[in-house]
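tool_call predict_complex ligand=S-adenosylmethionine
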Amino acid sequence: MDPEHWNTAYSAGDNVSWFEAAPEASLRMIGRAGLSPGRAIDVGGGASALARCLRGMGWDVTVLDISSAALELAQERLGAAASQIAWVAEDITRWRASVPFDLWHDRAVFHFLTTPEDRLAYANGLRAGLRPGGAAVIATFAEDGPERCSGLPVMRYAPEDLLAALGAGLRLEASERFVHVTPGGGKQRFQISLLRRDHEK
Ligand SMILES: C[S@@+](CC[C@H](N)C(=O)[O-])C[C@H]1O[C@@H](n2cnc3c(N)ncnc32)[C@H](O)[C@@H]1O
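tool_result ok
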């Protein structure tokens, strides 16, 4: 994955196809996880407002993104409040959490992993980075969603396919479909799933 591709994309500020003013579907699904605020990571969080929302709810938040430009934009927006969030400029297929999180959130990042090797690396990182009983909330293009985004090919998932792609140790607890309307007025079909990490046997 090329960080420069994403740094260039973020030079458009909010005029990116994935922009949403409020992360409503993510917050709804996070609410369904029923977790008390603890440690959360927004994987490929970019300049999303989710980190600010979770921080406001009492979560200890880490935002990881391959694009340093995205993280700078997010920090600029937050001003002094940016210091309450941990910022990590890394590729999720190469990074490992040192302490597992209670909540792992990903909106529109996993679907960019088009090779089996990258998907396996992500799945291993998720397993290592989520505590037993913790929740992963993952939004991807749905099976009838777009085939490309930001000039790149993507994978499309039904919730059961997402579960299969992420491997053992997770249970699918809930899923929803929703339509994202891009700033240009395009409609993109998404699915968002709540996956629970099993307790060790
Ligand atoms: C479509 S955007 C979604 C951004 C954000 N989740 C949101 O909902 O606004 C995809 C994001 O994933 C980041 N990204 C892409 N590949 C990545 C990777 N391998 N590791 C970490 N971040 C990645 C991009 O820089 C970008 O911020």
